[in-house]
Each structure stands twice: as C-alpha cells, then as structure tokens.
From TrEMBL:
Keywords: Membrane, Transmembrane, Transmembrane helix. This is CD225/dispanin family protein. GO terms for cellular component: membrane. Pfam families: CD225. It comes from Marseilla massiliensis. It comes from the Bacteria. Its main location: membrane. The chain crosses the membrane at residues 15-34, 61-80. InterPro entries: CD225/Dispanin, CD225/Dispanin_fam. The keyword Membrane applies. It is found in: Membrane.
Amino acid sequence: MEENVQPKTWLVESILVTLFCCLPFGIVGIVNAAKVNSLYASGNIEAAQQASATAAKWTKIGFIVGIVVIIVYAIGYGVMLKSALPDM
C-alpha cells in the first residue's frame, strides 16, 4: 500500500527569493507554493506534486538569476570604482 506524503510547499523559500533575489520569479514561486496545501487537502495529490515541482523550479531559477545579477552588479561597481580612483 502506497502512502501519500504531502509535497513540500516551497513557500518560505519563494518568499525569501522574492525579497532578496528576483521579484518576478519569486512571485511565480509563491503563487504555485500557495496551491500545494489546498490541492493536497482536496485529495488532488498529482496536482499538488506538480504545483510543488513548479514552485521549486521557479524558486531555484529566481535564486540563480538573483545571484548572477548580484555578482554582475558587484563586478561592475568594482570596475567603476577602480576607474574613478586616481592611479598611484
């Protein structure tokens, strides 16, 4: 007999990605994460698993995009700062 376990919601992770990394992708993650509990409670296990997978995908994409943007920004800031300082 197979026992169904509620899938991870990814809600906390999606909120953190929205706040600190990438707003648009984090919002998509939050929307899908919010669906997981209600779908599972209504007995729609397959849809709950799909919503969890989609929330995980967009949360991870948002995190990666946010980190890349932060790195590019830091490099650009360093280059601008170096060009603004007089040569020694």
